[in-house]
Each structure stands twice: as structure tokens, then as C-alpha cells.
Amino acid sequence: MVVSETWRLFKSEFSELLLAVLAAGMLFTMGNVFVLATIDLDAFSTDLKREAVLEVYFEDDVQREQIDSIKTMIASSEGVVAITEKGPDDALDEMSSILGSDLTEVLGFNPLPFSLEVAFVPETHRTSALDSLSTELVKQEAVMEVHFASEWIDNLNRLNRLALVVCVVICAMILLGAAFVFASLQRHIYTKRLQVIHNLVLLGMRKAVVRTSVLLLSGITGALSSIVALAVTFVLWKLAIRYIARFPYFELSTLGLVIVVPIVVAIASSLVTYRSFHPKIKV
Is 146 helix (H, G, I), strand (E, B) or coil? Predict the structure, then answer.
């Protein structure tokens, strides 16, 4: 009974259902794009922060014991992944490869000091703690300078938070818009078929069958909208990685959420709409 009634609704309201699927699909496509962009921005930021290092430059007359003491001090800090020593010759080779010429040919000597590069786990990039560490290191007698891009990382974190807030607000608006589309479709079905439903109820069909049929149709509508949204999002993603930049698609966990949300929104809007029309079905 439920399946046959659902199929009857599907055939009789096919054009309206198709319009609702396309409208909701485009809305969910916008949401998918913003979610994907926010996820990839966060991943890109994490990669950038992984490359951010704290650089400690020593005085020319630094002793081995002083270097080891500083390394021990740094190693006790939270989130330290690696401490890499860079001698003057190594620094000169790196600088020469960047500039494309040998500095010693111009200056006649190597001006670069011995240094340490300290890498941290990106999730532990608390700039306040690292700034404090930098301040303590500068106080050490053998240390000449300490560099760490704390301001740059703070700006990157603020950008991530802003992107997340914007994504949440836009997704909330999209969900409301999709709920309106689904509810409008269901109101149209109930209004158009109210007399038919009334006659079927008089002939013995339970109201629960009507409700379940529309809920099932709503779930199908939500699923079709999800498929349309994912298909369009996939095409846009393919175009983006071909002409703009390469970045990953949804992971399986996120993909599952993106598929389920339209179905849940469609069914929830159907329940709300049914409550408003239920009293109008006379028995």
C-alpha cells in the first residue's frame, strides 16, 4: 500500500518533483563547494604551518656546549618534532641556490652564522608559547637572533576561523532554503491531492499510509537532490583541479554526511508540513 501510493505520487507529481530536485540540488551544490573549500583551506593551512620553523642564529664564537645546551632547552618545549643543525657552509649553499650565485664571490667571505631550525607539530602552533620560547632563547649568551613567523601564523589561524564561520552561516542559509523547497513541494502535493486523500481515507486507507508515503517520497527527493549536488560538485572539482589548483575531494566520512543531510532535511520538512495538513484530512 505504501509503495504503491508513493509510486502514484511520484508519477502524478513528477514535474514538480523534478523542479524541487534541481532547485535543492543546486542549493546543496553551493553548500558542498563551501564545505569542500573550507576543509581544503584548513588542510592547506596545516601544510603551511608544518613548514613554519623557529630559527635560532648563533654568535660567530659559539661553542659546541652552548649549542647542545640550547638544543636541550628547545627539546623540552611542547610539540617539537625535529631540531636541525645548519652550519655556515650549509646555509651558504642553500642561499646560493636561492640567489643563483655564490655569495663568497661577491663578499669574499661567508657571512652566514651557525643556526638551528626547529619544526613543530602544526596542531601545537600556539604562538604565545613560541613567542615566550623565542624571548627566552634571545636572552642566552650565545644566541644572536631568533626568528619565528608568529604574526603570519596568527593571521592564518584567523583566516581559518573566519572561513569556518562563513561556511557555517552559508550552510545554515542553504539548509533553510532547501527545507523551504521541500516543504513547498509537499504543500503542493497535499493541497492538490487533499480531496483524493480524503476519499482514500474514507475507503479505509489509514492516515499513517498517507504520511509514510509522503515521507518516503520526501526521502527519495532528498536522495535525488544529494545525487545531483554531488555530481555537479564533482564536475566543478574536476574543472578546478584542471585549471586552478590540485586539492583533494571529500573524504569518505564527510562524503557520507553530505549524502545524508539532504535526505534528513527533506524528511524533517515533510514531517513539519504533514502536521499542518493533518487536521484537514477528514474521516
Answer: strand
- Which domains can be identified in the chain, with CATH numbers? 2-46+156-280 (no CATH), 53-148 (3.30.70.3040)
C-alpha cell recorded at residue 72: 636541550
**What pLDDT digit, counting tens, does each position of 150-162 carry?**
778 888 888 989 9
Give alpha helix (H) positions in the chain. Answer: 2-12, 14-51, 64-75, 88-99, 103-107, 127-138, 150-202, 207-243, 252-277
The pTM of the full predicted model, rounded to 2 decimals, is 0.72
Handedness of CA 208, 209, 214, 220 (dihedral sign): positive
The three-state DSSP-derived secondary structure of 189-237 is: HHHHHHHHHHHHHHCCCCHHHHHHHHHHHHHHHHHHHHHHHHHHHHHHH
